[in-house]
């Protein structure tokens, strides 16, 4: 091309005759630009004819003769020997025979062809074994076959086009017809299954497979162990340790294919169970990752108990019985709650669900063995639950199993194989894996515990079954910090999202803004947030303390000491967060107020009190009494102070007399506190509680120290004065009125006042 | 014995005759052949049963694949009890006719109701957004 250009230039200067030539050359130049070098260098027609012949042969090989046309990309440089290609005969030859005969030559030439062309583009033409197309195609083929190799000119461009369009997706060509480029995609290559086996042999086919058939449904290809390098994403620079499933062509959700056991087994059992972590870019799934697909579970569980090869018809019956026997034998060595056998470690293994269908009776009327005991090593039921189920099952097993009879005559039965059933069941079971049953299934556990206790109580002597505690296999928490998959050499953050790792959409970064106006508003919110935060922290401590008892029962002897220590520290911490910095026996007013200003905090306090040791609890109650007016004010909305009544009552009843006196004093506190206290329901209740307790003390124990100093008496006097002074409207009805108040008052006040009080209190009692 | 969670409990029901009620109101009766984790069902020799009053008619449908989310409920059919039925079986044409009549009657009553309501100056919003029925 370049030479001709220079020649042109030379020519233009010299002769005019060559102007015409020049023009033609110019046109050629345009041609060149449009169609590429091949337009000038090669005679495309010639090329095409040659290749058309080739194509025919390929078609014959592939589709047994009936094929739509497509043309192969001509190689840029090297041209296959036309002589090496035998002429195509009529398209009636059977494919295998053809393959064998032409395999060598064809393979060679096609190899060269394909290797020469752009690997990304080269695909074999759409070949459809479509019988309906046979008649029209044969016409098209005749002119082609009629072409001797060096005379391609018979095939006009139009015919060529026609053929192209007749065929399936037109193939991209590198050379002169390079207008069709890579993005064409690949046409569906439907190959008759009989040819697949033959295809294994020739190198040509392997190339074609590798390069040209990505649109094939992946499962078949993938399971043959082929490497569809086209479809694999670029290599990863980082990959989460566990969680992201390996690159696989088969999506996780597909049910197992029928003849699958040995291929997958090989794939999965090649990496031995020693490896705990899957190395990056490891193609096989890590042996026991946190997330297992049902397929892997199936294979891991099934492989040690491989099914013997039975013909399909006999299969279901025997395998079920066989398996039942196997499992029955398995049940023996497994101690209940013992460690799982090494081949089924952790929570991943051991899920072999049972199906209660009695096997269809084949001919003989042999009663099926009751092969549905509940496996002890599989589902982690509470022992009580398991007992109930066995009972239920036994009672049901006595009833009919007639259905099996009917099913044996049903020709469509067992369309769903045992494997598939297990697979479905396994998916459900996987969801039940739990690392902490108390966390995940709190109510279930509690319910069965209660039931057990109840049964124990009722049938104490009859049943001598030891109360078993549920010991679940702890699936190790393998959750590491999740590092998302990153690809090597990629611009930006490409993420691969999978079922297990949904895509991280936003990179959230914390930024703080300083703006004066917002500050003030924020402060308010911050304060509230602070309070809530404190409350939350205290709650977590409290929950630890509450759960102590349960944990205590579960832990073995040696660790009990440590647990006890831990418990003590927790309780201490709880109190510490409430108390004053310096004083041990006084609760910080500020803290108290802060916490109690939120509803959650009040709840917290009410739950907290029972767990504190008496002196500390007393201090807390004092604090409450001291700050009661403020608390009452804050409680106007919620009205939930009354949650505190019960725990406070308990505390009061365990108080000493001096403490009680102190408490009463606190309650009265400063001037005007008492009226406000009386306005609040809780306040009144608290007051009554104190008084009632005092009275109880006095009446029960004549030597009680309550009367040692005059404080108690004085306080009660002031209380009575206040009660009488306060108008009834501002006297809030209490939650309950202790019965011994009257006797208390009768000690201290005269008749008249007593009657008045009685009236008032009765009013309040009635208006409850 | 049924301690299988969720869909797995259907495994026991395979190859048994079931009655399936769909969200659009259809009743299918067929032999349950296959399930998956979403409780998609494959019913074999399915029959769609239309009930009108005390009569019913069956339309044979062949094989049905039902998407799990469209199932309201399903239950096994007791083959013994199926024989003694109070309902009267009629031909397909008849039952379809009956159904049509029933639909018409319903529409008519709806129309009247709407009219009466309109007369009183009220309006009932159309239940366009309601699902099914």
Mean pLDDT of chain B: 87
Describe the sheet with the most strands of chain B: 6 strands, mixed
Which range does the strand content of chain A fall in?
under 5%
- The sequence of SSEs of chain B as H and E is EEEEEHEH
- Percent of residues in helices of chain B comes to 10-25%
Q: Major β-sheet of chain A, in short? A: 2 strands, antiparallel
Number of DSSP strand runs of chain A: 2
What does this structure look like?
The complex is a heterodimer of chains A (768) and B (133). Chain A has 31 helices and two strands. Chain A is mainly alpha-helical. A two-stranded antiparallel sheet of chain A has the order 1-2. The longest helix of chain A has 39 residues, at 516-554. Chain A is elongated. With 133 residues, chain B is α+β, with helices and mostly antiparallel strands. Chain B is 25% helix and 35% strand. Chain B is built from two helices and six strands; from the N terminus they run E-E-E-E-E-H-E-H. Chain B has a six-stranded mixed beta sheet with strand order 5-1-2-3-4-6. In chain B, a hairpin with a 4-residue loop joins strand 1 (17-22) and strand 2 (27-35). The longest helix of chain B is centred in the last third of the chain and has 28 residues, at 92-119. Chain B starts with 16 loop residues before the first strand and ends in a 14-residue tail after the last helix. Chain A binds chain B through residues 255, 353-357, 372, 374, 379, 381, 389, 392-393, 396, 403, 406-407, 410, 412-416, 420-421, 424-425, 427-429, 431-432, and chain B through 1-8, 11-12, 14-16, 31, 33-37, 42, 44, 79.
């Amino acid at each position: 091309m370049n030479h001709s250009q220079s020649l042109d230039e030379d020519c233009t200067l010299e002769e005019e005759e060559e102007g015409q030539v020049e023009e033609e050359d110019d046109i050629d130049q345009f041609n060149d630009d449009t169609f590429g070098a091949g337009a000038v260098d090669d005679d495309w027609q010639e090329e095409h004819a040659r290749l058309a012949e080739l194509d025919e042969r390929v078609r014959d090989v592939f589709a047994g003769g009936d094929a739509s046309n497509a043309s192969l990309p001509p190689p840029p440089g090297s041209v296959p020997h036309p002589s090496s290609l035998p002429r195509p005969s009529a398209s009636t030859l059977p494919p295998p025979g053809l393959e064998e005969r032409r395999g060598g030559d064809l393979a060679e030439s096609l190899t060269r062809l394909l290797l020469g062309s752009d690997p990304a583009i080269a695909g074999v033409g759409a070949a459809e074994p479509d019988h309906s197309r046979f008649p029209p195609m044969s016409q098209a083929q005749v002119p082609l076959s009629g072409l001797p190799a060096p005379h391609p000119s018979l095939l006009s461009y139009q015919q060529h086009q026609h053929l192209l369009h007749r065929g399936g997706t037109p193939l991209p060509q590198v050379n002169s017809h390079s207008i069709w480029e890579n993005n064409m995609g690949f046409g569906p290559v439907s190959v008759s299954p009989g040819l697949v086996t033959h295809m294994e042999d020739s190198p040509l086919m392997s190339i074609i497979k590798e390069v040209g058939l990505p649109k094939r449904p992946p499962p078949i290809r993938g399971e043959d162990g082929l490497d569809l390098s086209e479809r694999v994403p670029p290599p990863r620079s980082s990959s989460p340790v566990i969680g992201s499933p390996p690159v696989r062509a088969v999506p996780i959700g597909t049910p197992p294919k029928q003849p699958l056991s040995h291929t997958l087994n090989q794939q999965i059992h090649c990496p031995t169970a020693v490896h705990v972590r899957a190395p990056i870019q490891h193609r096989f799934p890590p042996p026991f990752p946190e997330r297992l697909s049902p397929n892997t579970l199936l294979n891991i569980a099934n492989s040690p108990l491989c099914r013997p090869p039975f013909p399909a018809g006999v299969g279901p019956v025997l395998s079920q019985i066989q398996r039942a026997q196997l499992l029955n034998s398995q049940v023996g060595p497994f101690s209940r709650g013992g460690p799982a056998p090494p081949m089924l470690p952790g929570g991943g293994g051991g899920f072999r669900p049972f199906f209660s269908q009695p096997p269809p009776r084949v001919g003989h009327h042999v009663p099926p063995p009751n092969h549905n005991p509940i496996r002890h090593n599989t589902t982690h039921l509470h022992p009580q639950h398991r007992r109930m189920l066995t009972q239920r099952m036994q009672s049901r097993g006595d009833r009919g199993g007639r259905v099996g009879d009917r099913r044996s005559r049903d020709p469509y039965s067992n369309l769903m194989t045992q494997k598939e059933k297990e697979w479905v069941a396994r998916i459900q079971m996987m969801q039940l894996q739990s690392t902490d049953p108390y966390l995940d299934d709190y109510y279930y556990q509690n319910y069965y515990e209660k039931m057990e206790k109840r049964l124990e109580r009722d049938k104490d002597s009859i049943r001598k079954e030891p109360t078993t505690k549920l010991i679940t296999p702890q699936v190790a928490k393998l959750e590491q910090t999740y590092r998302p998959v990153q690809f090597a050499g990629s611009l930006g953050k490409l993420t691969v999202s999978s079922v297990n790792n949904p895509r991280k959409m936003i990179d959230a970064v914390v930024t703080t803004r300083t703006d004066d106006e917002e500050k003030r508003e924020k402060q308010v919110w911050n304060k509230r947030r602070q309070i809530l935060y404190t409350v939350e922290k205290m709650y977590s401590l409290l929950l630890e303390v509450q759960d102590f008892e349960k944990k205590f029962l579960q832990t073995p002897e040696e660790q009990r000491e440590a647990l006890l220590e831990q418990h003590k520290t927790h309780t201490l911490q709880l109190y510490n967060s409430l108390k004053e910095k310096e004083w041990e026996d006084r609760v910080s007013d500020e803290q108290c107020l802060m916490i109690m200003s939120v509803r959650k905090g009040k709840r917290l306090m009410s739950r907290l009190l029972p767990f504190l040791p008496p002196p500390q609890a007393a201090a807390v109650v004092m604090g409450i009494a001291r700050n009661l007016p403020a608390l009452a004010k804050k409680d106007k909305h919620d009205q939930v102070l009354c949650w505190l009544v019960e725990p406070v009552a308990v505390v009061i009843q365990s108080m000493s007399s001096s403490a009680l006196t102190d408490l009463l004093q606190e309650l009265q506190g400063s001037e005007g506190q008492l009226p406000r206290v009386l306005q609040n329901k809780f306040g009144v209740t608290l007051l009554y509680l104190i008084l009632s307790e005092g009275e109880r003390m006095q009446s029960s124990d004549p030597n009680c120290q309550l009367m040692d100093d005059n404080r108690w008496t004085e306080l009660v006097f002031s209380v009575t004065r206040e009660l009488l002074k306060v108008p009834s409207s501002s006297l809030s009805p209490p939650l309950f009125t202790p019965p011994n108040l009257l006797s208390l008052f009768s000690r201290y006040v005269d008749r008249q006042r007593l009657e008045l009080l009685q009236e008032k209190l009765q009013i309040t009692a009635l208006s409850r | 014995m049924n301690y299988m969670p969720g869909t797995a409990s259907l495994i026991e029901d395979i190859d048994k005759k079931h009655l399936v009620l769909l969200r659009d109101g259809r009743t299918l009766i067929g032999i349950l052949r296959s399930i998956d984790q979403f409780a998609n069902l494959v019913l074999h020799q399915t029959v769609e049963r239309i009930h009108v009053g005390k009569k019913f008619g069956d339309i044979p449908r062949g094989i049905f694949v039902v998407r799990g989310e469209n199932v309201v409920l399903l239950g096994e059919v007791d083959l013994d009890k199926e024989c003694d039925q109070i309902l009267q079986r009629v031909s397909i044409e008849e039952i379809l006719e009956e159904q049509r009549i029933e639909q018409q009657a319903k529409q008519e009553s709806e129309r009247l109701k709407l009219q009466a309501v309109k007369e009183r100056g009220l309006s009932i919003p159309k239940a366009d957004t309601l699902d099914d029925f």
